[in-house]
Design goal:
Blueprint: E1 3-6, E2 14-20, E3 25-30, E4 35-40, E5 45-50, E6 59-61, E7 68-73, E8 76-82, E9 89-97, E10 107-114, E11 120-126, E12 139-144, E13 150-157, E14 160-166, E15 171-176, E16 181-188, E17 193-202, E18 211-217, E19 223-228, E20 232-236, E21 244-249, E22 255-261, E23 267-272, E24 291-294
Antiparallel strand pairs: 1-24, 2-3, 3-4, 4-5, 6-7, 7-8, 8-9, 10-11, 11-12, 12-13, 14-15, 15-16, 16-17, 18-19, 19-20, 20-21, 22-23, 23-24
Length: 311
């Protein structure tokens, strides 16, 4: 039976957990709190740093560059230096900026993740919600490669969210939360292109309330999906469309994202939110906390770091 443990106090909107094998620690962000975090399970130490007056939605280490990370700041992707022991953060360079037209002034990056080659994929959303979680279709999915080339792939997204990659199947899994599905794309890692989108899981067909948010993949090729406003995690088999394998009920409503971590990559680290929707208060310390789930019966894959060339 799975064992769920709360590890930290609350943040406003925890997201984008990334397990770093080298330091045996977890990096994640508080989007609305405009902060980045490092949690080290062996010492239970939590370090926080502010990134200024801009929303940060992901943090990914740079391969072979100590204390360097790629993060989003609004509609920009930047490389930062952070020793992850203090609050000292320094922007080294701006790598990309998207959607500079006034039409997209309310857009920002949301979830981001690297494919097995170290290429970054990240999508945008428009923050002018027409109803709670009802965002207009002004988002786009982009990629940023090792030579700093930006490419757009999918447009008219409402809530660009979870991603996972299966190198063996040459597949990329992607979530636009407003669609109510988990989709699969054929992925050409060499060229950095995706094609042939089709849904592999539909929440409504399984009476799953809430929306699909962050996502990770295990070593068996199964997907683990955080259900925001649904208080659960679902495990699905993407090779058999519409196959729900398991459900893990969480003690909080806003489950935002998750990743495998620990020395054997057999523990799930889960971020959550305390985002006020429809005047519903989600009090601390449980809402917005970081959780660890043991005994899930699966192991994850090493998270890919961002790779540069000719730094």
């Amino acid at each position: 039976m799975s064992e769920i443990e709360r590890l930290t106090d609350s943040v406003k909107l925890g997201e984008s957990p990334h397990w770093d094998i080298e330091s045996q620690s977890l990096f994640y962000v508080d989007i609305l709190g405009m902060a980045i975090y490092k949690y080290t399970p062996s010492t239970k130490k939590l370090t926080k740093a502010s990134v200024g007056l801009n929303l940060v939605s992901f943090i990914i280490p740079v391969q072979d560059e100590k204390n360097q990370f790629v993060v989003s700041l609004g509609r920009e992707i930047v490389r930062i230096f952070w020793n992850s022991e203090t609050e000292d953060v320094r922007v080294i360079e701006k790598l990309a900026e998207v959607e500079e037209s006034r039409v997209f002034v309310d857009n920002r990056f949301n979830d981001g993740k690297c494919d097995p080659s170290g290429r970054l994929w990240a999508g945008t959303l428009n923050t002018r919600a027409q109803t709670p979680l009802g965002y207009p279709p002004k988002g786009t999915l982009y990629s940023l490669d090792a030579e700093r080339n930006v490419k757009s792939h999918v447009s008219h997204l409402r809530i660009s969210n979870g991603m996972a990659f299966d190198a063996a199947l040459q597949a990329m899994y992607f979530i636009d939360s407003a669609k109510g599905t988990v989709d699969r794309y054929d992925l050409d890692v060499t060229s950095g292109t995706i094609s042939n989108c089709r849904p592999i899981f539909t929440l409504s067909k399984h009476d799953v309330s809430g929306i699909a948010d962050g996502m990770t993949i295990d070593a068996d090729g199964n997907l683990w999906v955080a259900i925001f406003n649904g208080g659960k995690i679902i495990k699905v088999d993407p090779r058999r469309p519409e196959t729900l394998l398991a459900t893990v009920e969480m003690p909080v409503k806003q489950v935002t994202s998750l990743t495998f971590g620990g020395p054997d990559l057999d523990e799930l680290y889960v971020t959550t939110g305390a985002y006020k929707i429809d005047d519903e208060d989600l009090p601390p310390p449980d809402n917005g906390a970081l959780y660890r789930i043991r005994n899930v019966g699966a192991k994850g894959l090493p998270a890919a770091n961002f790779r540069f060339v000719n730094i």
